[in-house]
Amino acid sequence: MEPNKRGQGAALARWRAIQSARQTSGAHYGDSATVGAGLPILRTLRALQAGGDRIHAIAGVLSGSLAWLLHQYDGLRPFSGFVRQAWQAGYTEPDPREDLSGEDVRRKLLILVRATGVALHARQVQVASLVPPALAAVPVDGVHAALTALDAPLRARYAEAWKAGGRLRYIARWQAGGPAQVGLAMVPADDPLAAGSGTDNRVAIWSDRYARQPLVLQGPGAGAEVTAAALLDDALAIQAGQRL
Ligand SMILES: NC(=O)C1=CN([C@@H]2O[C@H](COP(=O)(O)OP(=O)(O)OC[C@H]3O[C@@H](n4cnc5c(N)ncnc54)[C@H](OP(=O)(O)O)[C@@H]3O)[C@@H](O)[C@H]2O)C=CC1
Ligand SMILES: N[C@@H](CC=O)C(=O)O
């Protein structure tokens, strides 16, 4: 079991090697914690397909830390201060630029799309990073001091959304045979993707069964407790002889 997304959510060759090892050696690979910090998203995709369903599209908020940041941010207090709080709470990756750059969300989207059987390359996901060049360039031990580089651009994006009556959300989208994108978007306040609170992830799945109205899953998507619980779930399932 692992919560690390680099196994299945980075190079396609590594994802293929893991699938091959699963099939040929009979090894188990517990990946429940890699997307949604254990929300039953991967499990649902697999259950739908095991029943003959085909997945057409996936869209949603896949970052618990970015969800939390965008729920907290009021355009008045500095965005960088909220990033420090999210890091202290254990919502961000050890280096918060992994979240702010969209790379963590890219990995999760790749894990989900690949779980539908589509061999998507990392380069096929367009990612719009929130990290300005000045912050990207600093060494890891200087990140926290350099986070203030985020403040002006985020304040401008927030003001633009506020004037239009919208909400900022960091959204991942993929459509079968079409593009895959990850980035900050302004959504109407009553948009389904604007809903939720705290670290909530919110994922919509369109399939043969859910063609007109998507299946929607929502719940906390970051934090030590939910992530550890997902790892334990996988361990117990393996011990009980279930095939993961
Ligand atoms: N935080 C979350 O909500 C979620 C995180 N994940 C994934 O979980 C993984 C860990 O993230 P997170 O728990 O937040 O990170 P943390 O930095 O809080 O924890 C990482 C832990 O791993 C230890 N560690 C790092 N390198 C080694 C090593 N080479 N040998 C032994 N121990 C090591 C660190 O020890 P030390 O402190 O001594 O350096 C630390 O205790 C990441 O892959 C992340 O993407 C997945 C889902 C949700
Ligand atoms: N840093 C990640 C933690 C879970 O994967 C996130 O913000 O979603």
Q: Uncertain spans, ≥5 residues at pLDDT below 50?
A: none
Question: What CATH architecture of the domain at 57-221 do you see?
Answer: 2-Layer Sandwich
By oligomeric state, this entry counts as single chain
N-to-C order of helices and strands: HHEHHHHEHHHEEEEH
Structural class: alpha+beta
Beta-strand content: 15-25%
* Major sheet details: 6 strands, mixed
What general form does the structure show? globular
Name of the CATH superfamily of the domain at 57-221: Dihydrodipicolinate Reductase, domain 2
CATH topology of the domain at 57-221: Dihydrodipicolinate Reductase, domain 2
The amount of helix comes to 25-40%
Bound molecules: NADPH dihydro-nicotinamide-adenine-dinucleotide phosphate, ligand LTNE7NMQ
The average pLDDT score comes to 97
Number of strands: 6
The first-to-last residue Cα distance is 10 Å
- Biggest sheet: strands side by side, in what order? 2-4-3-1-5-6
Alpha plus pi helix count: 10
CATH class of the domain at 57-221: Alpha Beta
EC number: 1.1.1.3
Cofactor: a metal cation
Pfam family, one: Homoserine_dh
Pathway: Amino-acid biosynthesis; L-threonine biosynthesis; L-threonine from L-aspartate: step 3/5; Amino-acid biosynthesis; L-methionine biosynthesis via de novo pathway; L-homoserine from L-aspartate: step 3/3
